[in-house]
Design goal:
Blueprint lengths: L2 E5 L5 E5 L6 H7 L19 E4 L12 H7 L9 E3 L13 E3 L6
Parallel strand pairs: 1-5
Antiparallel strand pairs: 1-2, 3-4, 3-5
Length: 106
């Protein structure tokens, strides 16, 4: 199973084993990673699973779709590497990916 590293705004790290085909958000919430609120349960309607994918992994994850882009417009502290983790599917290629969590979600 691929491993995804989540880094809280405080710097605390959580290495999570993720199931292929699930969302990065589900991997985080299943492992009780703080900072991924996922209020909408992964339906891309709340932006509470906002995370920053490390630049090395930006080209590996699928591109941001129109629904995700619209939701990110309302998120706090959006950056070029912002993603909604509910919209990123875990693949073998994401093994070792790093997602940093914004301070605004604590």
């Amino acid at each position: 199973m691929p491993k995804i590293l989540f880094i809280e705004a405080s710097g605390k790290e959580h290495l999570v084993e993720a199931k292929l085909g699930e969302s990065v958000m589900l991997a985080a919430t299943s492992a009780m990673v703080p900072g991924i609120l996922a209020d909408c349960g992964g339906s891309c309607t709340c932006a509470t699973c906002h995370a920053y994918i490390d630049e090395r992994w930006m080209g590996v994850a699928p591109p941001v779709g129109p629904d995700e882009a619209a939701m990110l417009e309302g998120a706090i502290d959006v950056r070029p590497n912002s993603r909604l983790s509910c919209q990123v599917t875990v693949t073998e290629a994401l093994d070792g990916a790093v997602f940093r969590l914004p301070a605004s979600q604590y």
